[in-house]
Design a protein that fits this description.
The protein is of the alpha/beta class and about 270 residues long. Helices cover about 35% and strands about 20% of the residues. The longest helix has 17 residues. It binds adenosine-5'-diphosphate and (4-amino-2-methylpyrimidin-5-yl)methyl dihydrogen phosphate.
């Protein structure tokens, strides 16, 4: 069994954060584990409140996981403060964690800030150097490269600018474009596009969380990075095409689209 750890925030509405990560991992056939950095009181319309874990408690969760069940990949999502980020960096170095995917979550789709302003420098200094890949969306990539991104050409320049500062790779996600949903991977000086038509579905709550945990899952299963991105992209496109429509705001994806209606176990079981 391949095991994957998510280090992220909890989303009470179940579509993003830890909940999206564990659903994704389960659907992709790996054993999911979690270290919770913060509780959020949120739903599809927005984030109402955030309660951070202490850095010490985040560290304790990581000790418990690594001392017992070693993950073959780690996904990092919402990490809201510099002390929490430093605690995570120290533990991941101590345990020589591998296949680390960092989703630099800054602002929720609904517009609420999920990271303190002062935490970005810590994220860049402590966690980016450990990452096999970082996965900024367009607004996050704009903050990292310092210029506006509108076209594919801009994405290429941004990926190159950000990629040059990293030992690992960068995947600039195209979910915020209006003409397509193409993502761009920049790895070792080489660019690869992962293209997909835009799915006409306003429900994209948790799409970045889902993509990054799918990449981590496929890395744990033995794919190389381009292979993991390709399979993760196919998974998220299908989960979006399944057109779940829940909540009053931007709703969640249907992670379980490949599981038969009624569930895999029990569900519509025949009773004779
Ligand atoms: N409407 C859409 N149609 C198809 N793919 C999409 C759509 N919106 C987002 N995606 C894909 O979802 C993934 C997450 O991207 P994005 O929504 O930009 O991340 P974030 O949630 O961090 O803002 C990417 O692979 C992106 O291309
Ligand atoms: C706890 C938590 N983590 C991350 C996100 C970002 O979600 P999205 O993928 O929609 O940007 C979120 N809304 N809540």
């Amino acid at each position: 069994m391949k095991c994957v750890l998510t280090i992220a925030g909890s989303d009470s509405s179940g579509g993003a954060g830890i909940q999206a990560d564990l659903k994704t991992m389960t659907c992709l056939g790996v054993f999911g584990m979690s270290a919770v950095t913060a509780l959020t009181a949120q739903n599809t319309t927005g984030v109402r409140d955030v309660l951070e874990a202490t850095p010490e408690f985040v560290g304790e969760q990581l000790d418990c996981v690594f001392e017992d069940i070693r993950p073959q990949a780690v996904k990092i999502g919402m990490v809201s403060s510099a002390p929490i980020i430093r605690a995570i960096g120290a533990k991941l170095r101590q345990y020589e964690a591998e296949n680390i995917v960092v989703d630099p979550v800054m602002v929720a789709t609904s517009g609420s800030a999920l990271m303190q302003g002062s935490a970005l420098t810590a994220l860049m200094e402590e966690l980016f150097p450990l990452a096999a890949v970082i996965t900024p969306n367009i607004p996050e990539a704009e903050r990292l490269c310092g210029f506006a991104i509108e076209t594919g050409e801009d994405m290429l320049r941004a990926a190159e600018t950000i990629g040059k500062t990293l030992p690992g790779a960068v995947l600039v996600k195209g979910g915020h474009r209006t003409d397509c949903a193409d993502d761009l991977l920049w790895q070792k000086g080489q660019a690869s596009w992962f293209r997909a038509p835009r799915v006409d579905n306003p429900n994209n709550h948790g799409s970045g969380c889902t993509l990054s945990s799918a990449i981590a899952s496929f890395l744990a299963l033995g794919e190389d990075l381009p292979g993991a991105v390709e399979k993760a992209k196919a998974y998220i496109t299908a989960a979006m095409e399944a057109r779940l429509d829940l909540g009053r705001g931007s709703g969640p994806l249907w992670h379980n689209y490949a599981i038969p209606e009624g569930g895999q176990v029990g569900g519509k079981g025949d009773r004779t």
